[in-house]
Amino acid sequence: MNWIQSNYGYANILMGIFIAFWTKLLFKKYKYNFYEILIVLCFVMGIGMLIYSLFGLLEALTQLRVLQIGAIIAFIYTSWAIGSFFDKKKKTNYLKALFAYVLGMISFYVLVVGIGMLMDKI
Question: Where are the domains of the chain?
Answer without folding.
Answer: 6-121
